[in-house]
Write a structure and sequence with these properties.
CATH superfamily of the largest domain: Type I PLP-dependent aspartate aminotransferase-like (Major domain)
Strand order of the largest sheet: 4-12-11-10-7-5-6
Shape: globular
Strand content: 15-25%
Order of helices and strands: EEEHHHEHEHHEHEEEHEEEHHEEHEEEH
CATH topology of the largest domain: Aspartate Aminotransferase, domain 2
């Protein structure tokens, strides 16, 4: 055997980390990196958060797995807390965002089936979407780079341009079951649906007998300064997929639903081996302990304003590097004036970690627990990277 034993499906950076502390990652050699990637919005409470560590250790010493053949008290508690804090009446726990989306899609189709419309199975989605890597969710996302080479695209998904609500309405047919979108696209380039668009989509679904599905896998769990991004619009979905931040680094997700939307999900029609595992539930409850604390989300909004103002200042200084700043809360994006891979490499050279996205954007997704000092340090490193890139552009132009 030659080379790595792993599938070569990741273009990994030549970095390996040994431990993490808050917003920082430390390599085996002791080099420190400021982590504004947070595992792609996963490490919502940073690295090594004492409350999460204690919850996982405590549960690990008691019980790891029993399966959903039996009652799991931590699952019942986390479900009740998510219901209390959201629009939902019912929760199904999964291991990932893609599984949460699969559950949402199946729930929507099943709802139409049990309400006398078995012909309704199609889902309308929007360009730039990223809903996961399963065969159904790459079809929902509709991006060719994820579909190529995997056979015929799974049927049942109709895509329209980003934020084109008129096109979405025209795309509705007698076979349409639901409309699916991310209120704030992550992979698509930190693009927000206007609040009015979310309201129009809610009205459209209500008038046409469709279910509205929100994918808040990346933008949920406090990332935008509210528990979920759709709350800014005062609009509620019928179904919502979550993951990433709810586990704080432990793999877990969930599909949330109203009683009406979930009416077809009866015993035996859907299942999971690991979803709702006691370890995941212990961590998920610990995450909510912190995120739902009085003042926590207020502080996220305060820090987001500090960060966004600082980013705007750097953009003003180096317009040949940064074209625009976009996003909400601590889910921010740099629209680059040069290839985003070049900018991301320059940030990494400054020991600042970020995440590339579509539309030539770099995502900045620090932990929600990021400190003011971390933000100032991140801005300092970003400014240094932008300065170096700008000087290189000027030198090349001579």
């Amino acid at each position: 055997m030659s080379g790595s034993a792993l599938y070569e499906t990741f273009a990994r950076a030549p970095l390996a980390f040994e431990r993490g502390e808050g917003s920082w990652l430390v390599t085996e050699k002791g080099d420190r990196y400021l982590d504004f990637a947070a595992g792609i919005a996963v490490n919502s409470l940073g690295h090594g958060h004492p409350h999460l560590v204690a919850a996982l250790k405590d549960q690990a010493e008691k019980l790891w797995h029993v399966s959903n053949l039996y009652e799991i008290p931590g699952q019942r508690r986390l479900g009740e807390r998510l219901v209390e804090a959201t629009f939902a009446d019912k929760v199904f726990f999964t291991n990932s965002g893609a599984e949460a989306l699969e559950c949402a899609i199946k729930t929507a189709r099943r709802y139409q089936f049990v309400t006398g419309h078995p012909e309704r199975f199609r889902v309308i989605t929007f360009e730039g979407a990223f809903h996961g890597r399963t065969l159904a969710t790459i079809a929902a996302g509709g991006q060719y780079k994820y579909l190529e080479g995997f056979g015929p695209k799974v049927d049942g998904f109709d895509q329209v341009p980003f934020d084109d609500i008129d096109a979405a309405e025209k795309a509705i047919t007698p076979e349409t079951a639901a409309i699916l979108l991310e209120p704030l696209q992550g992979e698509g380039g930190i693009r927000s649906f206007p609040l009015q668009s979310l309201k129009r989509l809610r009205q459209l679904c209500d008038s046409r007998g469709l279910l509205l599905i929100f994918d808040e896998v990346q933008c949920g769990i406090g990332r935008t300064g509210k528990l979920f991004a759709h709350e800014w619009a005062g609009v509620t979905p019928d179904l919502m997929a979550i993951a990433k931040g709810i586990g704080g680094g432990f793999p877990m997700g969930a599909c949330l639903a109203t009683d009406e939307a979930a009416r077809g999900m009866t015993a035996g029609v859907h299942g999971t081996t690991f979803g709702g595992n006691p370890l995941a539930m212990a961590v998920g409850n610990a995450v909510l302990d912190v995120v739902l604390e009085d003042g926590f989300l207020d502080d996220v909004n305060r820090k987001a304003l500090l960060f966004k103002q600082g980013l705007a200042s750097v953009a003003d200084e180096y317009p040949d590097v940064i074209e625009d700043i976009r996003g909400d809360g601590l889910m921010l994006g740099i629209k680059c004036a040069m290839p985003n891979g070049t900018v991301n490499g320059a940030l990494r050279d400054q020991h600042l970690l970020a995440v590339p996205a579509g539309d030539n954007v770099i995502r900045l997704l620090p932990p929600l627990t990021v400190t003011d000092a971390d933000i100032h340090e991140g801005l300092k490193r970003l400014r240094s990277a932008a300065k170096g890139l700008s000087e290189a552009v000027a030198a090349a132009a001579k």
